[in-house]
Specification:
Layout (H helix, E strand, L loop, with lengths): L11 H7 L10 H4 L12 H8 L9 H5 L6 H9 L3 H11 L4 H6 L5 H4 L12 H14 L14 E5 L3 H12 L3 E6 L19 H14 L2 E4 L9 H7 L2 E4 L19 E3 H9 L19 E5 L3 H12 L4 E5 L11 H9 L3 E3 L2 E8 L5 E11 L10 E3 L5 E4 L2 E4 L38 E3 L2 H4 L4 H20 L7
Parallel strand pairs: 1-2, 1-4, 2-3, 4-14, 5-13, 6-7, 6-13, 7-8
Antiparallel strand pairs: 9-10, 10-11, 10-12
Helix pairs in contact: 3-5, 3-9, 5-6, 5-9, 6-9, 10-17, 13-14, 14-15
Length: about 475
């Protein structure tokens, strides 16, 4: 890394008023709705420099304070503005575990841009687009692997290869620990590889990252069953520490009359069916193999709902409509994904709640019975309650209903030392302030201790667990050589 002063040499404090924000190029809608390839491209070098110059290099940058990963955003932008792309890419890869997350699925939902000091005066610096440029620049120029510490002589087992597991495995490996990752799925990567569509995340990019981790020495044992093939009691004897990183379990079921009609299924199962990453759940088996020409209605407002709308369009649906009981400002999905869905022909109906699924004599969905809603007064900083509007019932035609209501908490195996873990009334694992369970050297984080939660908190737990495991193992006597 260069020791040069990273502050841009141009008139950064005024560039924001002279240079308009430019979004990265997108493939034409007419092209991208026929495949599952990425919709958004990269800046060229000139545009990346120009957009980075819009940063005024605040002395107390709100973007860094807002970023859940504490990314060194001003430095990244400063190097980029000066055309020092290698230094920028090296900093990006060295300061991010699984850096593809920050630039593609962004666990913070781009809160850095929302808190940019330019917001309101002009338009925020396009931070995520610039990090995407740096990610791909780094891969192209062989800068993707940061400096790794010398072997520590200690080993850690990570259970789960989703985002929590991969971030922890990457971080511990960089610190010199020998890491083995276990998962029930056949491919590592969690939902990034098993359910997220290609227009959101390029699976080749994830596979490339996993291959790099394997080259570094991380071992992946896939297709195992926890509690039978992999026993916690045995792992505790074989490894110096264990991290439980089980991901989300089952999608939340639709609890409405008519939910068992043919044509009702889980959005996640539909996505797996569409991307060829899985066979779906039992709910998914009721979904038609082909939605071409059908009216598809999606229930929910998160990224999975946006994925389902966009996938339905690509699979030839006659209509792809998303129903949400709150207003547009309350959408949980990434703003960019919502905009993409709209551009591609997805329709949205807000302040609308489904109350029943109605079908024909053959047991097939024909429509949804719905009611208009309104938001009540919020209390104690909670989200406003959703209230039905009396006498506002109406019907929405539908042939296929996809449910995207989130996920339940993961479940622990009820065998060997898994059954000895202290859990609360919901079955979530109890941990101390260092994310250690009641079993010494066994740590846990993410959904297994908090239930369904935003991606940002999953990543924060993984980083906290990494530090806790490192501190715990560093305090142990030196291993025998």
């Amino acid at each position: 890394m260069s020791n040069h002063n990273p502050v841009p040499t141009g008139k950064a404090k005024y560039a924001w008023s002279e240079i308009d924000r430019a979004e990265p190029p997108k493939r034409p809608v007419a092209d991208r709705v026929h495949d599952f390839q990425e919709a958004v491209g990269d800046y060229d070098e000139a545009t990346a420099r120009e957009q980075a110059r819009r940063c005024i290099q605040c002395p107390n940058p709100a973007c860094v304070e807002a970023c859940p990963l504490n990314c060194s955003i001003p430095e990244l932008l400063a190097f980029t503005a000066d055309g020092r792309f290698q230094e920028a890419a090296e900093l990006f890869f060295s300061s991010h575990y699984i850096p593809e997350l920050a630039s593609h699925t962004c666990p913070g939902g781009r809160v850095c841009e929302r808190d940019c000091i330019l917001t309101g005066k002009s338009e925020a610096v396009p931070i995520r687009a610039i990090t995407r440029f740096l990610l791909h620049y780094g891969w192209k120029h062989g800068l993707a692997e940061p400096i790794i510490a010398s072997p520590r002589g200690r080993s850690v087992a990570v259970l789960g290869s989703g985002i929590s597991g991969l971030v922890t495995a990457d971080a511990l490996s960089r610190k010199g620990y020998a890491v083995t990752v276990f998962d029930t799925r056949q491919k590592p990567g969690g939902r990034m590889m098993n359910g997220l569509p290609g227009f959101r995340v390029d699976t080749a990019m994830v596979e490339r990252r996993v291959a790099l981790l394997q080259q570094r020495g991380i071992t992946f044992r896939m297709g195992v069953t926890f509690g039978t093939d992999v026993k916690l009691s045995e792992l505790r004897g074989e490894y110096d520490a264990v991290y439980l990183a089980f991901g989300r379990a089952e999608p939340v079921a639709l609890d409405l009359p008519g939910a068992d009609l043919r044509g009702v299924g889980q959005a996640l199962a539909f996505m797996e069916q569409s991307t060829g990453t899985g066979c779906g759940s039992a709910d998914g088996q009721r979904l038609p193999a082909d939605v071409s020409g059908k009216r598809v209605v999606v229930l929910g407002a998160g990224d999975t709902a946006m994925d389902a709308v966009r996938a339905a369009i690509r699979r030839g649906a006659a209509d792809a409509l998303c129903l949400y009981r709150r207003d547009e400002d309350s959408l949980l999905a990434d703003a960019e994904e919502y905009a993409n869905a709209q551009e591609e022909g997805g329709r949205f109906m807000f302040l609308t709640q489904a109350t029943a699924v109605v079908g024909n004599a053959a047991g097939e969905v024909t429509h949804l019975r719905c009611v208009r809603t309104e938001l009540g007064a919020a209390e104690d900083k909670r989200r406003p309650p959703v209230l039905p509007v009396a006498g506002s019932e109406f019907d929405v035609p539908a042939d296929v209903v996809l449910v995207a209501y989130g996920f339940t908490a993961p479940r622990l195996p009820q065998s060997d030392d898994f059954a000895r873990l202290d859990v609360d009334a919901r079955g979530l694992v109890r941990v101390d302030e260092n994310l250690m369970t009641n079993l010494p050297a066994v740590f846990a984080g993410g959904a297994i201790i908090r239930g369904p939660l935003p991606l940002v908190e999953v990543v924060q737990d993984a980083r906290k667990a990494t530090d806790a495991i490192d501190n715990y193992l560093s305090a142990l006597p030196e291993p025998a050589r």
